[in-house]
Design a protein that fits this description.
148 residues; alpha/beta; Rossmann fold; 3-stranded parallel sheet; 64% helix
Length: 148
């Protein structure tokens, strides 16, 4: 079993919207990085990080953040497209959310997000998901169990 971490978590760890979200996001990323759990991301994850972070950070800093791809498994659109389409049909979610949910589904991963709607749609589609803002302790406990 693996882990899919939504862009919102990485973004909150770098550009804090609120202190609580920032601390929680950093803790989840730290737990994930120390756990040895495989992390899977859709390729669009890279575009989303650049798009959001470039609003707040200089280009060089954003490029440095993109080094994260060395530590995660990136799934191509070809690998997840059909599943993402099915998720969009079933949940009526945003396209980028469908890609993250599809990644979690296809890799048998737990999805962690700061996007309530994404978490709800993932659960509706049968993906184990945690809305970090409200399910922080549950997400931490799940990560600990994944490590075991």
């Amino acid at each position: 079993m693996g882990l899919t971490i939504d862009s919102s978590i990485y973004i909150d760890s770098i550009v804090p919207k609120s202190e609580e979200r920032h601390i929680r996001a950093k803790e989840i990323i730290k737990l994930a990085s120390k756990s040895g759990i495989d992390v899977f991301e859709p390729r669009i994850f890279i575009v989303e990080l650049v798009g959001v972070l470039s609003r707040f950070k200089p280009k060089d800093e954003v490029k440095d953040v993109l080094n994260i791809v060395k530590f995660v498994n990136i799934l191509s659109e070809d690998e997840i497209f059909e599943t993402a389409i099915n998720i969009a049909f079933d949940t009526h979610c945003r396209a980028v959310d469908a890609y993250f949910i599809a990644t979690a589904k296809l890799t048998n991963s737990v999805l962690i997000t700061n996007d309530r709607i994404m978490a709800t749609n993932a659960k509706r589609y049968g993906v184990e998901a945690y809305y970090l803002i409200e399910e922080f302790n549950d997400a931490k406990e799940r990560l600990r169990k994944l490590r075991s």
